Amino acid sequence: MNVRLVDKVSNISKREFHEKYLSANRPVILKDLAKDWKATNKWTFDFFRKTYGHWEIPMYDKSYHNPGNGYMKPVTYKKFSDYLDIIENEPCKLRFHNFQIMKRAPELSQDYSTPEIMDGFFKFALMFFGGKGSALNLHYDIDCSNVFLTHFQTIKEVYLFPPEEAKYLYQLPFTNHAHVDVLKPDWEEFPAFKYTHCYKAEIHHGETLFIPRLWWHYVYYSEGGFSLALRANESLSSRARGLWNIVRLFTVDTGMNFLAGHRWKDYKDNKARANAVLAMQKIKSV
Ligand SMILES: O=C(O)CCC(=O)C(=O)O
Ligand SMILES: [Fe+2]
């Protein structure tokens, strides 16, 4: 597998961003997009612990996509302050993800501003927390948004793959995810993965990773930490596609998981394998 580093830039104009990254559909790390945000200094482990520590929060781990009753459901709940104590100090595989934090704490939206680097930002924002050693499996964002992921306090790694490489990633049909462990691939099970072009981004405190729409990403918390994801989509047709994706993929997949559990998972695994075999045959016949 071929791994390249994602560019890191500062002080980029809207025009240059459009030309080099948005229109070219390329990821980039923006070092200073969040430099004037209050959040950059204010959002510490201690701040969240002191202000919102009493919340009960849902916890997720790598069983997120296991078939059956627990499919895409929390594995447990924890007090937010207890969870923050853990992820600040020790390894932990639990994550708290896709959290629309501003719904619960609208005052936090005063701590950042909508970036001006492109148009079409959505009002809502998501937060992601993870312990050292936790990972979010390979997926693309089902709503087809461009994502601006700003990380706070620590470092984390994101591995990105272009949309056209889904076939080498063993995309599970009717889903937006795949189960290759990017950091430790099982080459016997996923031989096509070696044909991918992987882009690695290491995001440090206050840096923002631009994930272009439909790009696949695998997130590894090399240290415990948290990020804010702002999302933008300038194109009405792609917004519509995102909505359609949510209805079509989510309804079919969760419905079939409910009806057929393990058999549905086997069907998806077999289909992903067959697609990868076909893709490899095409490469070899060229
Ligand atoms: O940072 C994370 O844990 C996941 C981020 C992500 O997948 C996203 O913002 O789309
Ligand atoms: Fe994502």
> Would you count the extended β strands for me?
14
- By CATH's scheme, which homologous superfamily applies? Cupin
Largest sheet: 7 strands, mixed
Shape designation: globular
User: What percentage of the residues does DSSP assign to strands (E)?
Assistant: 25-35%
Report how far apart the termini are.
Answer: 19 Å
**What would CATH call the architecture?**
Sandwich
Bound molecules: 2-oxoglutaric acid, fe (ii) ion
Helix/strand/pairing category = alpha+beta
Helix content: 25-40%
What's the Cα radius of gyration?
A: 19 Å
Question: What is the level 1 CATH name?
Answer: Mainly Beta
Number of helices: 6
Order of helices and strands: EEHEHHEEHEHEEEEEEEEH
